[in-house]
Amino acid sequence: MSPAGAVLGAACLLLPVAAAALDVQVISVHASESGPTDASLGALRPRLRRLAGYRAFRVVRSERRQCQWHSPEQFALPGGRSLQLVPRGIEQQAVLMQVRLLDGRRRLVDTNVRLRNRGTMLFGVGQDGRGGEGSGALIVVLRAEER
Amino acid sequence: MTCGDVERLLDAFIDRELPAPMLLEVARHASACSPCDATLRQFATLGDLIGQTLADDAAALDLAPVWPAVARGIERSTRRRRWAQRLRTVPAWGVAAAALAASALLWLQASAPPTRRPVRVATARLRPDQAVIDRLAGKHVTVRSEPKAGMTMIWVDYPGEPVR
Asked: Which pTM value belongs to this model?
């Protein structure tokens, strides 16, 4: 086999691996003490209520993206914040990711998580974690699914 | 006193729980009534037999393996009592010095810079929405978990408008 053929063969072998991606969905939710809750969050509402302490939840932004393994991705969040994530791999039906929650350039959270494939996890940013009197909180819903 | 009365009072008579006049009445009736006399004797024999069996069982009980544990318990209790006696003899300045040392230790721990320790969670079997956090860094960060599906939330206590 010629060197060019070998390179082409290797590229063909690597192509499905590169194509295998992680489907990531990031939903920004505004949590507040009162008001209506978006119908799309109906199923999630009881858990959001228990975990965040607020009563009303409204979707502010939603983004779904195919992410490549080991390739950093940045999702814009309301209020000048962003969620950076690097999918690192899959292990025992769990998606390994490095996730950073940023406020501008300030790093609020930097974590390595293992989330069950097709599972959901949450990030919350607010002054009072349990239903304070302020203007509410930002909740980030992160879903990851290996294709 | 009739045979029916004796039958009703039988248990109490055997266990000697009847008042003396009543005991006498039952005994007097039994001495004149052979069926009641026979019944009383049968019950008395049965009672004796049970008593004897219990006494035999108690005598046959081997408590030898129990004693080492009892002895250890006694020894522990004695040691505790000795310590309590010693503590009572410690002067007031000793107590004050110990309290001062404990306060200093607490202060040193509180004033030490926060270390970025990873939060580790056992990964036996993940529930549908459970996330395992291998490493977590950030200020004023807490991890909350919802018991039903194990949904995990990383919460940051951070001022500012949530949605600008």
From this structure: 0.54
